[in-house]
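Onboarding guide, step 5: your first structure request.
Type a short instruction followed by the sequence, for example:

Predict the 3D structure of this protein.
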Amino acid sequence: MIMEQRYVATGMSHGHRALPEHAEQAVKRALAKAGLERANAILLFLTPEYAANPEPALRAAARAGGCLQVVGCTGAGILTEAEWVLDSPGAAAMVLGGDMQLTISPQSSRNDEDMVLSLCTPAGLTADWLDVPARRFGAVSGDLFGHGPFKVWSGARVSDAEQVDAVLSGVRGVLGASQGVRALTSPIEVAEVQGYDIKRLGNYPALSVLVQSLPPAVREMERVPLHLIMGGVTIGDPETAIREGRYRLNHIVAANLNDQSITLSERPARGERIFWAMRDALVAERDMLGCITRSTQELGADPDFALLFPCMGRGPNFFGNRDRDLDNLRARFPGLPIIGMYGNGEIGPLDGANHLFQYSVVLGLFKAAAVA
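The system replies with structure tokens like these:
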């Protein structure tokens, strides 16, 4: 039963096969909840089973919504405020009405205040594309195994460039990110580097500092879980960087016993401050709660809808078959339309620039413009 015209809503449909009808049903359910006969734009996320041939689903969504502006990608999983799906083929759709639009426009016509929904495949992710003045938010298309194929689309057509930029207009919004790692040390100056290897932190070998910082239960393991441990490179004042989330994660590639160095995925720089950190579900949940609070305060009002992009390594597989990021957002705003997908990297703001996050979640809260 439609109580009022909301101008934005979501729908979900999934089953045993990757049928175009799931996209059609998701859009129709969203239109019914929004009180709309047709949509200005449709945000459509599909599960990996559609990646080989998403076009029939895109056409079905466009017909159902009476709209050619269908934007989205395939992800490892999909989500709305109603549920998340990681283990069956399906579609999640959000319809926009009123004054809200998703507009495909050239980079030259944008300004620094534009909020650009940014979706790409791993092959489409380039530094030049990411590093622009406009505020990007979104994710990298993914699947559970990282093998692909991966697809992104706009205008109800797959993008040959493997990149999609859609300016979200008719709203004001706030973008935030939660990295949510447990700091094992305070920030320490990188004293000696060689290529991708940190040799010394302060006055001590890098590996020695890391081992001493590990919780006893982890330190005593036969094989230390390096995939859960990483370096946090601080941005700005190191005294407050961890608390305020001003850091980028640099992942450990190898621990080298011979010279007590640590090899990182990105080249470290002498003089920067780094802290050792570990992935932790309780810390991640607490950090996400802080992200929701800060974003709501910055927006200055309860949002009309939200976009949520968790890493596929952070969702239900991380929180024990619960998506605590989604749970906490819908607990804070019951009934809020939410859509997102689990990706292979998250795009959002960090210290005034666009950044590619890992093992994180990017959140966008949006307030629609007044409708005549």
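Each response can be followed by summary notes, for example: The chain has two domains: 8-178+284-368, 181-278.
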